[in-house]
Amino acid sequence: MIAPIGILTIAAALFCLLLGNGATVRILSVSAVLGSAAALLVGATNIQPGHLVLGFLLVSVLARPRDTAAMLAALSAPRPGFWLAALTVYGVLSAYFAPRLFAGMTNIIPLGSTAFADTGGTQPLGPVSSNLTQSIYLVGGLLCFAMTSAVASTERGFADVTAALFAYCVANLVFALIDLGTAATGTEGLLEFIRNAQYTLHVDDRVGGMKRIVGSFTEASSFARSTLGVLGFTGTLWLCGIRSRWSGLLAAASIAALVLSTSSTGLAGLVVMAAVLTVTALSLFGRLPDNRPAVLLLVLLPVVALALLLFIAIIPSLSSTVADYVDLVVLGKFETSSGIERNSWNVIALQNIFDSFGLGVGLGTIRASSFAMALLASVGVPGALCYLAFLWGCLRSKGGRPGSFASAARLAARNGCLGLLVGDLMVGPVIDQGIFFYMLAALAAAAPLRRPQRRPAFDPPVTLREVTP
Fold it and tell me: How far apart are CA 335 and CA 327, in angstroms?
């Protein structure tokens, strides 16, 4: 069945398909924000708008021989795409064989439906319905990475992908504002057309009377995880002087959204991302024509942090309020029924690793509460090594002159990937990291740009600017 949001997605994708790769990759990025939407409903399976648009981008890429060659090149050894392809092949094979090979040898918390009655607890290992859906998602992630790499293999395409990711950041925060606005006015029903997925949605939860921000996602932790990636991407662009006003505004808004989200993932991840951006500012200092953003961060961050701590310390009532908030959102999270349940998932996943002799119980078989545990328990040590090789290849990839637009965009994409990974390590239940992650990874690992075709549409290189001290 095609949902109304699916009809709108298809119409927009068809229009963008006529305009070329640049427009199609933009609609792909924006549609990836709709984490609680189902464009197509096939039985109990939800096909999200982003995965639907992947098919249109594939048509656009395959219609151009040069782009097809670039897509295949992105998957060749020793590029990062090769290791992602290896992970995908191993994952799909494990999804079919592992639950049958190790059937009954261990107990699992199933991700999908099984042959046993759903009791909400552990079940003997066996095939799970999500073996198929997670295999499809991982193949979709591989295609997303390869196609985005192909589009980003030219200067114009590289700028298009950067602009598309920037559009994702804008959409992520716009939906957060809409979520808060509809909750305040009692008009939550206006968002039902993008909240039609057959998942358990936690869109009305409150903590201490505060509305938990979920935006266009299924729960507050998913929104916080997405926003950590947005902060890493836009904060780095601001430090590099790329569209400073907009990127700085989006980074500041992301920080506010993380604090107000009442998500332990967001608050804990914010501390990590502050450290990441500080290290980035130190690495950029003295290498850019305009060092003001880096200086501002390096000077203001410790000063503001110290001032806030002193302000809180000298006002007892405020100290008590902040302490209660931190205890409620972060520290007390582990003592809640939800926290205890999630911790038990990881304990069982750890046992699955040993019971499967480190080979994994199969992609999509189990549910965990940490990406690391889900990765090792699902695809074992072989799959984890492939993933680490892929991630390392993306994070260490370099291209463009220091201070150039290409260098800044790649650095921003790497920090965006780190932001999403931080969130996944805390709450990720599966190994699929979503379209936004794979697009960021592709931009970070894109092949060196060819001869310039025209000035980038997103922003000119930093080195071409006239900077006044």
Answer: 10
Inter-axis angle of helices 49-62 and 65-74, nearest 10: 120
pLDDT score at 469: 30
Pairing of strands 206-207, 210-211: antiparallel
pTM, two decimals, is 0.89
Q: What is the pLDDT of residues 312-339, one digit of tens each?
A: 677 766 566 666 666 666 655 666 666 6
- Strand segments (E) across 198-298: 206-207, 210-211
Report the 10 Å Cβ neighbour count for 291.
18
Residue 122 to residues 109, 126, 350, Cα–Cα distance (Å): 5, 12, 14
Residues 6 or more apart whose Cβ sits within 8 Å of residue 50: 28, 31, 32, 34, 434, 435
Residue showing tokens 């190790």:
102
Q: Which two tokens stand for residue 463?
A: 């080195």
For residue 460, whether the previous peptide bond is cis, meaning omega lies within 30 degrees of 0, is no
Instruction: Specify the amino acid at residue 407.
Output: S
Q: Note the pLDDT tens digit of each residue in 258-276.
A: 988 888 888 889 989 999 9
Burial of 244 (0-12, 13-18, 19+ CB in 10 A): middle
CA distances from 36 to 47, 91, 269, 417, 419 (A): 10, 25, 22, 21, 21
- For residue 30, give the nearest of 53, 7, 2 by alpha carbon: 53
